[in-house]
Amino acid sequence: MKYFKPILYVVIIMSFSCKTPTEFSKEALAEIMISTQGKEVNLQTILQQHKGKKIVIDVWATWCRDCIEGLPKVAALQDEFPEVVFLFLSEDRTQEVWKKGIDKYQIKGEHYFIKTGAKGDFKDFLNSNWIPRYMIINEAGDIVLFKAETASDERIKTLL
Description:
The protein is of the alpha/beta class. 39% of the residues lie in helices and 22% in strands. The chain has helices at 4-17, 26-30, 43-48, 65-80, 95-104, 121-126, 154-159, and strands at 32-35, 40-42, 55-60, 85-90, 110-114, 133-137, 143-148. It has a single domain (21-159), classed as 3-Layer(aba) Sandwich (Glutaredoxin).
């Protein structure tokens, strides 16, 4: 019991210091992605191409069962919100598997292969070892939804 108060104090302090990011770190923005055409581009350039638009980022991989199961819900969101940009960032192990997965699951949107896969600055920024991961960027370029683990998360529709 004498340790309860100090532990509670630490937990409370830590909860206040765990602020949800509203913008990407410089390191995450510098992360190299590879387009379906094989062109290397950093995340910042990708986001700048869609400046002024809402963006849904779907971090996924073909080996991820939850990711694949969420694809029909993502497709429904695309139908409901055609003005929104959908960026699919893959953590697959190889570009060949990634491209086959896009075709196999008929995933519509803009696709990039994360060169460092499940490691690297972008993944560190996400601070998560779980995919799928959905994020929403607003028209001003701010992260308005940092972490959703299912495409059916009601916050996604509300923010779109």
